[in-house]
Design a protein that fits this description.
The protein has about 150 residues and is mainly beta. It has one domain: TolB, C-terminal domain (Neuraminidase, 6 Propeller). It has no helices and 13 strands. A hairpin with a 6-residue loop joins strand 5 and strand 6.
């Protein structure tokens, strides 16, 4: 994954793992990034500091989990796609995991913010882009490709 300034300059590599790193989102204060990694073949949910340091596993169950992003209160929205998709809220401070039954069976993505304030997301075959909460930088994830001039 890469982080860029809002004007598409100054690329900074955030991850360099053997598996693909993608999806996710910024914490409400912009200090952390939630993402999905395939470091052990299946998708697991990890979090890291916005500068790429301190990456660690949040959820690594059997099957394929995906990181959707942070809610404004700091909880993380994630899905488990082992069979029918199930959605969960995870509170990192307390360790509490709560199933979101109303989303059961929905094969994401799920937006939890009003459309007028949701940062733009551009999806392509090999890359995605998400703006930081302050809109002064964005991150780009891809399937093991170097950044290209946009």
């Amino acid at each position: 994954m890469w982080r860029f300034r809002g004007d598409f300059t100054d690329p900074v590599r955030l991850t360099d793992s053997p598996g693909d790193d993608y999806a996710g989102g910024w914490s409400p204060d912009g200090s952390q990034i939630l993402f999905t990694t395939k470091r052990r073949d299946a998708g697991d949910v990890w979090v890291m500091q916005a500068d790429g340091t301190g990456a660690h596993s949040v959820i690594a169950w059997d099957g394929n989990q995906s990181a959707e992003g942070f809610l404004p209160d700091g909880r993380m929205l994630l899905s488990d796609n082992l069979g029918k998709p199930e959605w969960y809220l995870f509170a990192p401070r307390s360790g509490r995991l709560e199933r979101v039954g109303i989303l059961s069976g929905i094969d994401g993505p799920v937006a939890w913010r009003a459309a007028t304030v949701r940062p733009p997301l551009r999806t392509a075959m090999t890359a995605w882009y998400r703006w930081s909460p302050t809109l002064n930088s964005f991150m780009r994830g891809s399937v093991k490709h170097q950044p290209k001039h946009l």
